[in-house]
User: Fold AB hydrolase-1 domain-containing protein from Penicillium bovifimosum.
Amino acid sequence: MTASEIAGSIFKYASIPIAIGVGLYAILLGLLTTSTFQSHVVYLHAIQMTWFKDLNVPETFGFLKNQVTPFSIKTADGQELYAWHILPVELYRKHQMSLIEEPVGFVTDIKSRLGFQLLREDPDARLILHMHGAGGTVASGYRVPNYRALSAGHPGKIHVLTFDYRGFGKSTGSPSETGLVIDALAVVDWAMNVAGIPASQILIFGQSMGTAVSIAVSKHLAIQDPPIVFAGTVLVAPFVDVATLVSTYRIAGTVPILSPLARFPLLFRYLQRFIRDKWLSKDSIAQYIRATEFNGEKYRVAIIHAQDDFDIPWHHSELVFWHAVNASMASGISYDELEQKKLDSKADLGAGGSVMEWKTDNGVIREEILKTGLHDVIMGYPIVTMAVMRFFEAADPSFAI
Assistant:
């Protein structure tokens, strides 16, 4: 066999897996134009990550007996959202004997439970509304350590309310952008009108996909009349919008979505037209800032990201931060101008990363970029605890341990 024949054979057999790969990718692109498949890719709600544990037994996830009350919240369009009310550990300690005497598991009337009463009847209670990322349930991955970090700053006062969006875990329905906003509004309504916690004592926390939900609901409430503005909004690993995200995102860190097509602008823009749920966080946060500035409302936003985040590149946070800062100024500011101001005024924390704080007469927009923390591990870091305490104390200086 001649050298040319050998080369031809190698090319022939090598081209088969390449052709198969291209074909499978073409099928993937075709499926992505359908709403159902696209929904599964964006939200990953079918991936439970808690299949072998019962969410109605929170003790199997490391909680104390009846520290967590599983219950449901009904949305305006009739969906049932599965939720956890998590007691801060010091408050639990004070009432442990009474709490462990109560029945365990899911409750149909949360108002009858001691945990709820401790939240409802304490005028100094603080509540964090937790909006998790794509995939999994309230108990998946690093979410449980995240809850502990959120309440660690004041373990006698800071309660956490976390829930699964429609279509996730035990919640009914199917996810969509409109649906998830309705879900978040239902949770806010429960917090303010059932639990009786004023907005000034509520903080919104979102991570990954949850940042888009957090920004959207914060904007929705800030532009209504009268506006509702919370003690603060903490965003961990936000993204600019779905179109920008899919240009770099890989499913499970491996399978690219549209990144191979980013080199072909016309084709890339054409395929973007099929994106159903756009989650325009950059625009929503700008509208939120403009509304609160116009109304003279006090607002606080923290944007936290790790440079080694391989799921959502940390540059998304830089862009979200810029859109927020730009909206806070009547004359605006260019991205390059803001970058120059960062060089002049941001705090360099060495291996701890950097912090840039932008202040106006009405609000604070804070960008914290860590060197490490990945996409999920960061949720259990002290930086999250500090962000919570900073905003609660800013809203009420008397709130301290």
In short: The radius of gyration is 23 Å. Residues 3-32 form one domain.
